[in-house]
Amino acid sequence: MRRIDALLVLMVLIWGVNYSVIKRAFAEIPPQPFNAIRITLASAVFLLAIRFARERAGRPRATISSAFHTPTLMNTRDFWDLIWLGLVGHCAYQYCFVGGVALTSVSNAALIIGATPVAVAVVSALLGRERIALFHWLGAAVSVAGIYFVVGRGAEFGGQTLRGDLLVIVSVACWAAYTLGAGRLISRHSPLFVTGTTMAIGGVPYVAMTLPQFLTVDWSAVSAWTWLSLVLSALLALNVAYLIWYMGVQKIGAARTSMYSNLVPITAMVVAALWLGEPLGRDKILGAVAVLSGVALTRLGRKPSPVPIEE
Would you kindly state where each structural domain of the chain is located, as residue ranges? Predict the structure, then answer.
């Protein structure tokens, strides 16, 4: 396992555990205000980290990883890319995802999100961003089949959950656009700069949209555990995990990085079974094996041959 694979596994663990953490927190704070505080806190941490990395890079004989700082200057296209990526990848994605999960079942949401790697791979191939090998397509198919065994058999689309299902579908489209759309920026600027700046840009309209709900919450009734879970969720699920995600995009490409998101529902399932007492049956175990096998298949064979961004 390469270092980036180990980091992506850490990202999966963070996002998987985060599901059970925020599920308990939503009992005291509504989803959108909870998320608004998370984004605000995570954006502030990112901006401070960007400033620190820039100052350190300016010191004599200083060495700093390209994941945290690159000396490339901003141009007009970079500026507009940061704007639309912030609005789509953070504001729209977060609003639709959180709102969708609140209105549909966990099974429906996890099954829809399980299609993210396929969406990223297909669009990436159609745009000519990555030449996807046969092993990757096979791995994607096996992983999607595994997601079905994990959560799909009990999923029922439409009816009362239709609005939530549609919102989660839109969030998948936003995440795919964000992952692929940032490819050119990631080739020029550090993942820390791209992730932090786009989150801060998207966080402004997000907080504005959720402000009416924010004002109705009885904040004095929120427990210390919920406040702690909010802070940890921001620092780990948004700061650390998002940074790892784009380090993966930078190192192994968007399609292969996105395959690791298939492991998140499995991790969330195991954590929920151990912590929240949710049932863990044979189908879910078989599905977990299939998803792990699919991710392994995507890492076999030759590395993808990325097409230069400027082409």
Answer: 3-56+73-298
